[in-house]
């Protein structure tokens, strides 16, 4: 029997780009995404425990690891990282660049903190809503929507899958993925 590492399977609890949780089904990593009403900053927190009905009523008691600061009109602003290996701010349009000058806005690339270039694409592979690959077209992450005929209970059924060899980039994939979904939602 061949043992292969399990990918991170982050369940997207609400499927909202401003208020959700990404919880690994094997309890290895947890992220909370939050934007206060009337604000333009979406904050990403790394959590110690899985989301629950009770956690959303308690104060977070920690600092966010990433800020996604959008403009008042929801156009792209800046992304700020507060956890090593990369700390600092960069304009989102420079962080997530279109893959070609005349290409679609839903195909963008970014330089990861590991020095590799990655690209997100919308519906580039069958069965995947969003796909992230290296520039050599190696699949590293993808977002899958729940099939409409499958019942779910108290969850969205949508998952962000990150392959084990790229788990160290998990927070950056979540941040870049949320920006890509924002671009799609606001037709930027």
TrEMBL record:
<dbReference type="Pfam" id="PF20236">
    <property type="entry name" value="DUF6593"/>
</dbReference>
<dbReference type="InterPro" id="IPR046528">
    <property type="entry name" value="DUF6593"/>
</dbReference>
<protein>
    <recommendedName>
        <fullName>DUF6593 domain-containing protein</fullName>
    </recommendedName>
</protein>
<feature type="domain" description="DUF6593">
    <location>
        <begin position="16"/>
        <end position="182"/>
    </location>
</feature>
């Amino acid at each position: 029997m061949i043992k292969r590492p399990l990918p991170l399977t982050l369940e997207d609890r609400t499927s909202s780009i401003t208020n959700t949780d990404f919880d690994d089904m094997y309890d290895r990593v947890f992220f909370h995404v939050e934007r206060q009403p009337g604000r333009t900053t979406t904050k990403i927190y790394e959590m110690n425990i899985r989301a629950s009905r009770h956690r959303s009523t308690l104060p977070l008691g920690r600092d966010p690891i990433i800020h996604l600061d959008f403009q008042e009109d929801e156009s792209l602003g800046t992304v700020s990282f507060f956890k090593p290996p990369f700390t600092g701010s960069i304009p989102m349009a420079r962080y997530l660049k279109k893959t070609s000058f005349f290409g679609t806005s839903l195909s963008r690339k970014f330089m990861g903190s590991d020095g590799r270039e990655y690209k997100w694409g919308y519906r580039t592979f069958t069965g995947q809503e969003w796909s992230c690959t290296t520039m050599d077209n190696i699949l590293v992450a993808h977002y899958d929507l729940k099939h409409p005929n499958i019942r779910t209970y108290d969850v969205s059924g949508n998952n962000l899958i990150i392959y084990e060899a790229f788990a160290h980039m998990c927070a950056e994939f979540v941040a870049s993925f949320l920006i890509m979904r924002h671009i799609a939602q606001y037709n930027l």
